[in-house]
Amino acid sequence: MSSAKYKRVLLKLSGEVLAGAQGYGIDPKTMDAVSEGIKEMVVLGVQTAVVIGGGNIFRGLAASAHGMERTSADYMGMLATLLNALALQSTLEQKGVTTRVQSAIEMKSLAESYIRRKAIRHLEKKRVVIFAAGTGNPYFSTDTAAVLRAMEVGAEVILKGTKVNGVFDRDPVKYPDAIQFQSLTFFEVIEKGLEIMDSTAMTLAMDNNLTLRVFNINDLGNIRRVLMGESVGTLVTRSKQ
Fold it and tell me: What is the pLDDT of residues 89-133, one digit of tens each?
């Protein structure tokens, strides 16, 4: 029996994480390392869902800022998430991890359509479910999709894997003296304007009493430490712990 703290989790991966040091596209070494972390989650007996972004390939909001019509740009961004999902699926299955990709936009030749009960059944059968295409709607980020899917499948916590060690008072890449927070409430995140997730996602998580753990996924030992209940990164909850 697993000694992990959680039975069912949702892992949120940004496209930028998959780009690695190259800053764009999919870095094979980074993809392999992330897949090893997800495999460890499965080995520990944790039912694992993944929501994946597409910013390493195409970012709809940025494109619309440069004149592209917003709805079209967002749909293109959703397609980028499917590319990442298929790449992650391929890498995981090479490691012996059974997966299913479910897309919020119907693409029968590439992925299952998202069906909540089917996703839960896959999780119960110890399959990693990778959710692609966000919510399927423009104007909503993959962060919002992560919170929505976490609620729908009954995840106990959202694990947000990033390139830094947690949540800081300012960008730690630009400011070496940035201070890391050990814990925050969702209200504090919104009040301080900390860019963990967009405000829609944060409000949805707060209203539904979800727990969020932000940590550095590039440190391979962090996933196990988080699942074992260690205080890694930054914990975000509705009320102070």
Answer: 999 999 999 999 999 999 999 999 999 999 999 999 999 999 999
**68 three-class SS:** coil
* Beta carbons of 30 and 84 less than 8 angstroms apart: no
Q: Domains along the chain?
A: 8-237 (3.40.1160.10)
Question: Within 13 Å, how many C-alpha atoms sit on residue 229's CB side?
Answer: 6
* Rounded Cα–Cα distance for residues 38 and 208 (Å): 26
- DSSP 8-state secondary structure symbol assigned to residue 207: H
- What are the CA-CA distances from residue 226 to residues 40, 48, 109, 160, 214 (Å)? 12, 14, 36, 11, 10
Q: Provide the mean pLDDT of the chain.
A: 93
What pLDDT does residue 61 have?
Answer: 66
Q: Which residue has the tokens 């030749």?
A: 109
Handedness of CA 232, 214, 126, 99 (dihedral sign): negative
> If we measure between CA atoms, which residue out of 91, 93, 110, 111 comes closest to residue 102?
111
Cα–Cα distance, 208 to 187 (Å, whole number): 13
- pLDDT (0 to 100) of residue 240: 76
